[in-house]
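Dear H.,

Thanks for agreeing to be a second pair of eyes. The structure we're designing against is below in token form, covering all 295 positions.
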């Protein structure tokens, strides 16, 4: 087993030790009695402990075997905290409604967000300590990124308190901040359309050379796109980063009405036409003596 310093670097471990910051995180999350809450990367157990004091039923997930043993020893059995040695990127998520309140490993923030938001689960809200720049990028309205555009029909994003680097041990190079993710109720789109919508938005981002209109030209004629842009209040020459979730949902619905939101299914290939049998090569007749030219 690698030593403690190596594990901290490999697992991106920066433990939150500031008690006021921990209380502020839990208070801001609004956890109440009986809530099922995941503490991802539970580490020293201080966040799990604060959640349990609010009456939550806590699953403290820790990938580091040594820390997981300490958590089990700290909370024992029969308490409100269940310590689990697991990797959240592969461990099953609860099917019943649950929340996440955690200081997640900075090095795998996007992977954890994908794990929580890309698949259907019971997640209702997440309050996650991430790098301050990541919280600003994901949580500030109007910052159009591909991932946000893919997630926002089902989740709303916001930001909470900034947490200085001095509140962590070992101290990271940057400050942290709380990223808040709340499930929409109702969602902007039926979850059954999620795969088609994600493909539609991804194609628009990846194919925009240089504008959304050019990327969607085969899906939405320029005139139809311009009409939608005028109706929704964005420029017909907009870039993907300039559109918000309301724009993307409206464009997707318009494309779906036209039958082009999903790439058309490939038509079954027709059987190849039968080639006529090749005529046999002409038989070469051996010249008789009468056929030969006279000498």
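And this is the sequence the design step returned. I haven't edited it by hand at all.
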């Amino acid at each position: 087993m690698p030593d403690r310093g190596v594990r901290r670097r490999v697992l991106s471990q920066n433990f939150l030790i500031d008690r006021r910051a921990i209380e502020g995180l839990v208070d801001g999350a609004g956890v109440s009695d009986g809530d099922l809450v995941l503490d991802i990367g539970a580490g020293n157990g201080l966040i799990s402990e604060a959640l349990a004091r609010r009456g939550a039923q806590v699953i403290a997930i820790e990938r580091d075997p040594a820390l997981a043993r300490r958590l089990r020893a700290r909370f024992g059995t029969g308490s409100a905290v269940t310590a689990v040695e697991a990797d959240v990127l592969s461990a099953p998520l609860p099917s019943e409604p649950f929340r996440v309140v955690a200081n997640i490993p900075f090095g795998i923030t996007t992977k954890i967000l994908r794990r929580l938001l890309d698949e259907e689960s019971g997640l209702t809200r997440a309050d996650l300590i991430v790098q301050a720049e990541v919280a600003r990028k994901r949580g500030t309205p109007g910052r159009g990124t591909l991932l946000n555009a893919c997630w926002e029909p089902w989740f709303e994003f916001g930001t909470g308190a900034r947490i200085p680097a001095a509140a962590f041990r070992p101290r990271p190079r940057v400050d942290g901040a709380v990223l808040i993710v709340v499930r929409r109720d109702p969602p902007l789109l039926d979850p059954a359309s999620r795969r088609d919508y994600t493909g539609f938005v991804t194609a628009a981002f990846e194919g925009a050379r240089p504008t959304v209109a050019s990327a969607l030209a085969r899906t939405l004629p320029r005139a139809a796109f311009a009409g939608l842009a005028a109706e929704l209040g964005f420029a017909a020459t907009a870039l993907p980063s300039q559109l918000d979730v309301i724009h993307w949902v409206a464009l997707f619905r318009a494309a779906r009405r036209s039958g082009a939101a999903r790439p058309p299914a490939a038509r079954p290939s027709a059987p190849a036409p039968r080639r006529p049998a090749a005529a046999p090569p002409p038989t070469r007749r051996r010249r008789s003596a009468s056929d030969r030219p006279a000498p």
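Two observations from my side: The beta strands are 15-16, 36-40, 57-62, 81-85, 98-103, 123-131, 155-163, 168-169, 176-183. Residues 28 and 160 are 8 Å apart (CA to CA).

Warmly,
E.
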